[in-house]
Design a protein that fits this description.
By secondary structure, this protein is an alpha/beta fold. Helix content is 38%, strand content 17%.
Amino acid sequence: MTVAAAFDPPVAVASLSGEADAEWARTAAPYVGCALLGGIALDGPTRAAARELRARDRSEFLPSDPIAFVDAELSALEGLAVRPGMNVRSAATAPIAAAASVCADHDAVLEINAHCRQAEMCAAGAGETLMRDADRLCEQVAAAAEAGATVGVKLRAEVPGVELPALSARLSAAGADSLHVDAMDSEAVIADVVSAAPDATVIANNDVRGPESVREYFAYGADAVSVGRPSNDPAVLERVRRAVETRADGDAGRGASTDA
């Protein structure tokens, strides 16, 4: 696990487009160690895609100046006892580097979104499309790392044609400090990612609601778990945090048995 990407307690709240802002992070703060804001569309193609998504009633952030927005939202979290992060989407590399520089100034994680599967965002060359273009995704990771940021990548399992463990190894080698994996219905893939990228902090995501899911993901070696849709529900966050704090020593994360 990369120390730079670690947080305590090992519970994160995951970005929700158009919803995960500084106020959202403050509400979650009593229960988590990391809040990943965003996602923010940074370049022309992804901003156009975000407008299309809004047109069909999906929630999206569309500030006039996305880099200034990143700076302002992270500034609003100064003094909060939570590791901040910003999930961003871009087809181009230069905007990733610009956002990473801002994140570095705030000791925040710059999380590259290679996870979104909305058709508009994929057509723009971002989101899940990046998982099928490993060279370009690694280029974005390297640029963010060179800008001084702690770099994360949000990924998903079950993408046709993508060998997630092999991609994870490449991303770690390119400079990714954390890999935030939406396991979909393939929870055991977390163990494969941990094995392939032993130097990265692995955050397990998907259906994290309480003790059962927490035990399972830590048994597969995850360093942390994240809560997605119910991240604005304090009852769920409290249940997850309590499950993390009281999990058995045998389910304590990397190196633990998968015999949950």
